[in-house]
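Record filed below.
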Amino acid sequence: MPRYILDEKDMRTVFDLEKPVIVVGRAAESDIAVLDLRASREHCRVELHGEQHLLVDLGSQNGTRLNGHLVERAALKAGDRIEIGGATVWFQEAPPPDDLVGSETMVTSAAALGMDSQADRLRRLQRVTMALNGELHLDPLLNIIIDHLVEISGAERGFLVLSQGEGRPRVRVARNFEQEDVQDADAGFSASIVERVMQTGEPIVPANAVEDDRFQGNLSINAIRARSVMCLPFRERGGTVGAAYLDNRLQMAAFGEEDRDTLMSLVDLAAAAIERARLYDENERRALELEELNKGLERRVDTQDRELHEVKDRLRSAGQPEGVYPQIIGDSKTMKEVLRLLDKVVKTEEPVLITGESGTGKELIARAIHAHGPRARQAFQSENCAALTDTLLESELFGHVKGAFTGADRDRKGLFELADGGTLFLDEVADMSPEMQKKLLRALQEGEIRPVGGKGVKRVDVRIISASNKRLDRLVRAGEFREDLYYRLRVLTVDLPPLRDRKEDVPALVAHFMNLYSRAGHPQKVIEPGVAELLQGYDWPGNIRELENEVKRMVALSDETITSEVLSDHIQRGGRGLVDMDEDGPVQNLIDLVEQVERREIEKALRVSKNNKTRAADLLGISRFTLQRKLDKYAMA
């Protein structure tokens, strides 16, 4: 039966073990348990192979020595000496205890000891380097570093402190010789020693930390009662980024110069490994963020693609507008109907009549029809027929020859000729005189024009888009507009709703005008919620043109935030503006109408003032007492 003789701390223990595998280490459950802290928990084992016993190192941090030499695997013979830290295990037979010191196998020259110690140090560093290079992530790497430092030094505990950018350095890992985490790590070491090492970049190895004059005033040293301390700097790129703090609370002078030199070499290797691990973790983090961003982008693209198909399906089923008209702002039901009509109008080259109140954007619609139609690459010309006299209007439309009238010093092309192949927009066509109506009709019927003062005619191909803020059908019935011209102009008709019938579009229009003025050099401003409600509650008799001018006023008179004080007085008071009444509509009961208006305006004022009755009364232009009476009257209190 194989015999193993353990010599440790002046004690000898004999083990007769007949097992195929014998484990030696610091763990209590080992077949041969040693006490030396430099031994790993599972340090080495002896395997039985037939008649041969094979010694195998188990990746121990301090290595396994056989007859004074570090080995990974080696065959055993009787009398072999296995060294594990400060413990010795003899295989099969051992010299008497009294002869150990004088034994030839234990006698080594000083030179041989020096060479062996240096070789041992290099092997240890090689072993540690392999362990450090095998781990790329920071947290497990720090555990490996502190475990090696504790085992090689024979320390009781180890603390690894690293700087955190601009913040105070903190303990990243603290472990004991059992490779267990130290509880309450921040209070378990001397912060003053660590701070001094990080400031100076030099190691500190006091013989007795408790009695060292340098630390007599330090409370943590006295509280911890560590007799042996070694603190080593982590140096990186010329600076100190952390420190390794090792201690032994029972043994004085547990750490020597050789330990310091060996561990400083290890710490230098560890500092480079920490920097590499930090970079690796950072690259992994960024790679994960990039992967998440890519996944998010893919999900967004998929969602948008799906939503786009759903929108297209809904548009096809609900008859929503297909075209994109970025110059036309509005998502209300009435504007969607206009845009759906435009989808059909833009595909033709027929004349179009645009009707609507002043300021509703008739020219904008005309330009959209041209820009999205088959003549988009050709010219677009426009003229306001109400702004010129007959003579000037005729010259503008048809051109003139030199000498046709006073000041006509050269031939000049008219808008029909300039718009040849393209589109001519005639605004306020209802204000043409009967004579000009006749000349315009002839040009449209025959497709040719005669310049003022000229004798010849010119063929032109022009699409006519006309506009009027008056009801042309009523003018025709009244004999004020030619019926034949009316039917010539209104082959297709687009009726624009007033802004009061599409108030849900007011916020988008305000934002549009604000962005326009911001791009023109005005600073971007913020609108208070109450202002937005006042703007949306007003009827805008001047329509979009009036709204645009009000936004200009708001931007010009306000600071960074637009408040209700800069609004026009009638808008502040919640005025509804001057609305054209339908003369052909039914007569309404005044009592019911007054109640309806008062209820609506009171509700609006309370909403804008956030139920502040005094403020609401000011907005309505009445006293608070009067407001309260109306609330009681209509059971709104």
In short: The first strand starts at residue 3 and ends at 8.
